[in-house]
């Protein structure tokens, strides 16, 4: 089976969470309400997931003020204490900006990205810099120092480098997380003779031994967004949209790799429709998502309007089941609710009377994950070979590595060049570290939305991300690939389940402006009826066996 979130006592993962919302030296209009709440929300999710409180360092205005010097010192502390095999999360929520530098191969547009700390101020022409800002070069130098000790680093940046305001369809103000250069006193383009020359990236010639992956809320030139979340809820509060999606995905607790996490985020991150920013996911995405407790409670936020939660049949829920109601971060029971209706990605509850005001989460009390697979298969079975699935052509290739002891430390080769063609309808038995590459092509005349769903040997269901990072929408003639790495041994030596695994390709006609995406199984991604209610929906299903004995 593929890797589930695991706990490994040999190394204690650490997290540095930085949230900058107060900028005393900048105009009041650039104050952000979300970053401090982002940090608190993410810290709570990590603690619920098994992080020791002492392993989480929070830097906000009301904890440890995140000035430029303080943040760089905290990064240096991480490097000094880093050990080989450790995983470190570095998170930043706040404003981004740009400043002029000399044109080079690394900065061809003559602009360098900045991340503004609490003491950020206007352009200092004499010193040719923005005080209180950390440049992307400085970020990477600090991260390379951590990686040089053999630790793996996962960087998450919820900021952007463009400016503007978008007003959502709900009429609520939606703010972007960038400060324009003019607001920093950089009038137009500073003469290149006065700009700071860009040095070579530290470690570029000899990469550090630790692996590196980066998540960014918005690609270059796009807008990272702060808004009231959950949308339409009486309990909504200012949060960063990307961090909200990230936290929900972590709390769901059904992820193996950073690639899976990216898939869940993109499925969740559809709240603003076509104006939503496009996130960026780069680096060693096949890394495990930290070392989180595998059996922690599965909690989902309750939307009081409609009494729904973003979890359904894929989590084993069915009509008549009961969920426990709790406050975020609390173990105290507020009551129980019955599931009235469960679909793929959402459930409607019958709430008890007398619930207190404030945010509430529903904790799923079901334990056997295999039950989730059985119910999902029962729901999708009528779709087999129907409708939109007729347009799909599927091919597969298989790569068998020479070494099979530690898959996590193998190079992240999403599509090895020497993978051999295999017949997907009659796959051989897969063993530890084998990689199955599946090519999914649209041979029809119309666009379709294809969601790859993977059920491993223990019944855990995961939506698979495409190797090119694309959406579920396939235009006529388009092809995308997914990769599945077989495992029967976790990174901590724990034995994982072996047996039958399945890949299900659920195809829907492209009838909506945004691609329909079932991979993250979250209610926000649903813009139309579930596939069971779509007469033109279809599914292709494949199965194989994973064994602990190499062929």
TrEMBL record:
Coiled coil, from the record: none
Domain Peptidase C14 caspase positions: 14-265
Ranges that cross the membrane: none
GO CC terms of this entry: cytoplasm
A GO MF term: cysteine-type endopeptidase activity
Gene3D superfamilies, sorted: 3.40.50.1460
Stretch forming the signal peptide: none
Protein name: Peptidase C14 caspase domain-containing protein
